[in-house]
UniProtKB/TrEMBL annotation, chain B:
PROSITE patterns, A to Z: ABC_TM1
Domain ABC transmembrane type-1: 102-318
UniProt record similarity statement: Belongs to the binding-protein-dependent transport system permease family.
Species per Swiss-Prot/TrEMBL record: Glycomyces paridis
An example Gene Ontology CC term for this record: plasma membrane
Compartments (UniProt record): Cell membrane
InterPro entries, alphabetized: BPD_transp_1_N, MetI-like, MetI-like_sf
Membrane topology category: Multi-pass membrane protein
TM annotation in the entry: 9-29, 102-125, 137-161, 195-214, 250-275, 295-321
Protein name as annotated: ABC transporter permease
Pfam families referenced in this protein's UniProt entry, alphabetically: BPD_transp_1, BPD_transp_1_N
Gene Ontology BP annotations: transmembrane transport
Keywords: Cell membrane, Membrane, Transmembrane, Transmembrane helix, Transport
Amino acid sequence: MEHARPLLEISGLRTSFDTYDGKVRAVDGVDLAVHAGKTLCVVGESGCGKSVTARSILRLVEDPGRIESGTIAWNGHELDGTGESFDILALDPKDKRLGRLRGGEIGMIFQEPAASLLPLRTIGAQLIETLRIHTDLSKKAARAKAIELLDSVGIPDPHRRVDAYPFQLSGGMCQRAMIAIALCANPSLLIADEPTTALDVTTQARILDLIRSLQAEHGMAVMFITHDLGVVAELADEVAVMYLGRVVERAGVEELFADPKHPYTKALLASVPVLGRDRGRDLPTIPGAVPNPLHRPTGCSFHPRCAEAIAGRCDLDDPPEVDFGGGRTAECVLYAPSEDTEGATA
Amino acid sequence: MVRYLGRRVLYMAATLLAISLVVFVIINLPPGDFVTALQAKYNQQGQGLGPQDVENLRVRYGLDGNLVQQYWHWFTQIAAHGNLGMSFEFDKPVAQVIAPRLGWTLAVSLITLLVTWALAFPIGVYSAVKQHSIGDYAVTTVGFLGLATPSFLIALVFIYFSVTWFGSVPSGLCSPEWCDAAWNLGKLLDLFGHLWIPMIVIGTGGVAGLVRIIRNNLLDELRRPYVTAARARGVPEGPLLRRYPLRVALNPFVSTIGWILPLLLVGDIVVGQILSLPTLGPILLGALKSQDMYLAGSIIMILSVVTVIGTLISDLLLGWLDPRIRLGHQR
């Protein structure tokens, strides 16, 4: 991508979980970049490590999970000229910069909005608390600002709702409140970890509209984690496809849908029903299931399910990351610049 | 809130009515009654009671008529006059037997309870927050031992060591020379000199149990999404722990008040007996052994009332602490 320096740069991120059965490498060498003002969608099946990647950014991975290596560079200060870039993973847990990142410069929303709010405190209390952490508003001013924020995320009757408890609101309303909390300090990046998965379809569409309009209004970048390709098509500028802890393909959204490179991406796109076209026929599926990350296949981890796998190659060697230029990459041997296997399929 | 309170009080009254029935049935289960017991006593002394005397006595104590009438008499006596009936063994009204011991029981139990909470709460929180640390393992191990050792065994061990080392048995709550004295500093100091033994004996199991409750509750809550979400918006760790998971973990703690109150009143029966504490526990034990049914029934009835009141208190506290309970029906 020929943009300026990205706002957030993840490189070589490895996050693993120690379980009784062994070490699960949930994120196994992920490189990602989020550019200021743009939307990056991270897409993949359940368990591919997309949520863990998102949580690693704000260092929210909990025991028994551990970030093993990698760097996450935050260039927000350099981009707006207020300070230097730093590596989030190198910060001391007590470093003030980490506290400012969490909720200040990076807002985050989650999959289960109702469970992400403490049921014993009103949404206003939780919003005002966050406001007072990141701004120096007085209690009264913070309450006024809270009502204003609730209004801006489309919660009707915010004067009354500010004193509502999360269990008195619907899931969609809770997610709106979470968005208000995430945006209260005008962050330059919003991380949305499957924010619409637990909501019904109409609410889903409204929340997506809200995120899009708020993004336009605030000029913030969005990192959107989802398994829904429809959402990707609607929101993304750039897309990263993840499979078993690795990014297997990176592309602009149009290129991805027009010309998917990686066999996994192709299979994913083929399995999305198209109105009219798929009437009366079985939807293509990806054979098999996601392998247990404890017993990752050797070579390319997708090869057991891949229609284009090359025997003796894909099951032995790690696939190379092929750079097509313009930020397009695919981690697949099919595009490797070696003559003997070009175009061959098994 | 008023409606919530009204509902609770109504349930409470219904529960008490049911309990009074059960207690009355228990009182009347053994053959005979207070008058037959009196009759036997006088017969032993050689002064027979005539049928007319027996009849008069029955009328006097409300023991004439059938079971329903007797229940009505007993119930109205308690409800209207607070009259709990007579104790055979002590030959005086039950109220006079219970009253002097109530203060001591409450004193011993309340102090034990406060110390138990003061110890258990920080230990439990520490043990949850630093799960899998050496401190947590130590606390958990000691907790298991404390929970597994019956308190009467600890009491016996105490008596054994105090006899072998000091040559005396620590019994009661005061030394003989102070027991009947008026309250002054000397008596107070003497009380504290005695109080620590029942406190340790009764408190050990309590602390161990509570530590486990708090630790498990808090561990459950620490893994909830709202904790991660609060951390993600920059809430510092200290306030995060206090304002989020600890508040939720407090609820089961509050709801234990319901069954702690009656325990406070009886004290630990067996420990009370072993250490000769002037609490209600040993009295209840004695009354059950000698079939002193009005005394036993009254103690059980008082305990039930206290249980119901304790439950009401914890319900009110829970309603105050947890809006889900307070507002749950107007979702």
